[in-house]
């Protein structure tokens, strides 16, 4: 048996055992609940977080279990009726695991590959089902969150109330998206009940953070509610010269004059300071990562400022029609310096030659989505018909400069090296707009739900590149248009089992041109066949899902060596096939658990010479995880205590598309312990202490993607003291 499979078996068994035990425990609890209900007419249930799922894709959840969301259909739809693999990271999971990045937030979701670039606080780069979704798959409140080059919006987990995940091609509703699917980040919204929280944190690498979250009615007379969330952090990291400082503020207001009308304003501003590079030097002789920081602590600042403001409006016209409109304006500016050691000096092998650079990028985007929902019957058929039109306009500007820097001294690799100011060499300006119109009908007959949807998009992109030394200008204009669709069928049994089958497509316009042919790139297209089952155990807060999928992507972009440089070419085709299973529960006995396993086989069907028939780099066949959190009984000796623990398995993978070397498999462990001081005395009610650790055993192995090697992020421990009143 292959080594990686042998190492995987214990965790797979643990995941499957946890899933089986979960079903047995939940079934037993359901039987007890039925007995209690029959005996006294009442039963104990978990508190349900019910929010309006018609706007922004917010989640209705009970503990760890997502029940419904608008992410899968743009209308509030139960997960059991969504004919596609969908899951969620709920607000309770965020509280228990206290993630500090989006990657940590998503680490326990099935099929999500985080850590492919090791420790790197600059970007939230991740993959799903073998496809990169960093640029194409991140949405905010059901609206596209654009990104370009290094201008990728940073996402603060403390500003989220959850994440909805729709896997697979999803252009039928959302337009330009990739083959892997989309991750909808749900912003914290005003609550009708008063909420007050302040928190201080201290952690590894001199990490200091203070944060607050206030919400409730503005006054007792007006139907206006507010929320104000913010934090301030001063922190170093495991890499010298790479801080992780952040200031974040997010105001929100909701006006609800009647039950049929609602307007929510969502805003945010943040400033983040980190490093221009965080990578380790790769020895060209071996191609592997060393322990030497490849950057320059004296020339490695990266400051990113971003802001957004938008609204969600919903108005019920009558018993049949509801109108919604969501819109957002967002801006991002990143100013960074970087210095990178790339090879031994010819005269002194203890020195490493370096190259330095600087860039200034600005991204501005406007997104608006208008939709009309109608619910009506035609005979025995119940319809939820959705018609909409959305528009995205973005402008991206980049100034880039390259220069020289002193060599890195391997005998003192953390010493800063002075770098002279670097002038900008090129200026790139890109303007893009996308207009899409879509129609979807969810048709219900008895236990059957047929979902049929289609969309047509028009995209126009103009790119101007100026060589500032010669003042020469290159202009590329391209226009794309494409139809996307989805059809799916779901059957719901009386006992909570819901098998489904679906077919969906996606398209993604590509900016730039092929330097070999001087022709614009065609859009990247993908299609998926998926079959699965979802099981919501009766009278138990437990959801188990499983899916089989096949995804074909064509006209993908690849880097290919031509002469002494790499250029983008388009002649690729990828195929991803796999299986996923996930289980989530939050039981009345204080136990919450999430477990998942994903098998993914991603191959290059067409691509650069030497890669055809190979596996995509850093795409493991096996990913599995288990996280459990238990709150001890209030009347027992451990009253007030909560403990949690998790394990994340990442199977072996190839380090490049040529498949000449491999990344080893690894298991990373996380842990949590908390204490509620109200167990000592009621006068301490609302005061809680929590300590979270990620990569508990500090495993920091090399991980290589696209031929370049990084290192896993090491152990971090964060203590939090929280007070709610």
What does the model show?
The relative contact order is 0.14. The strands form 8 sheets. The protein has a 22-stranded antiparallel β-barrel. Helices cover 7% and strands 57% of the residues. It is globular. It starts with a helix and ends with a strand. With 725 residues, the chain is mainly beta.
Give the % helix: under 10%
Shape, principal axes of CA atoms = globular
- Count of helix runs: 4
- What value does the Rg take, in angstroms? 26 Å
Oligomer: single chain
Major beta-sheet overview: 22 strands, antiparallel, barrel
Quick recap:
The protein is mainly beta.
Secondary-structure map:
Blueprint: H1 3-40, E1 59-62, E2 65-69, E3 77-78, E4 86-89, H2 91-97, H3 102-106, E5 112-113, E6 127-128, E7 131-132, E8 138-140, E9 143-144, E10 160-167, H4 171-174, E11 181-187, E12 195-203, E13 207-217, E14 224-234, E15 245-258, E16 261-275, E17 280-283, E18 288-293, E19 301-316, E20 321-344, E21 351-378, E22 381-409, E23 426-445, E24 448-467, E25 472-491, E26 497-508, E27 513-514, E28 519-520, E29 524-536, E30 542-562, E31 565-586, E32 591-606, E33 622-631, E34 641-650, E35 653-654, E36 662-663, E37 666-676, E38 687-694, E39 702-705, E40 708-711, E41 716-724
Parallel strand pairs: 8-11
Antiparallel strand pairs: 1-2, 2-3, 4-10, 5-6, 6-7, 8-9, 10-11, 12-13, 12-41, 13-14, 14-15, 15-16, 16-19, 17-18, 19-20, 20-21, 21-22, 22-23, 23-24, 24-25, 25-26, 26-29, 27-28, 29-30, 30-31, 31-32, 32-33, 33-34, 34-37, 35-36, 37-38, 38-41, 39-40
Domain TonB-dependent receptor-like beta-barrel: 255-696
Membrane topology: Multi-pass membrane protein
Keywords: Cell outer membrane, Ion transport, Iron, Iron transport, Membrane, Receptor, Signal, TonB box, Transmembrane, Transmembrane beta strand, Transport
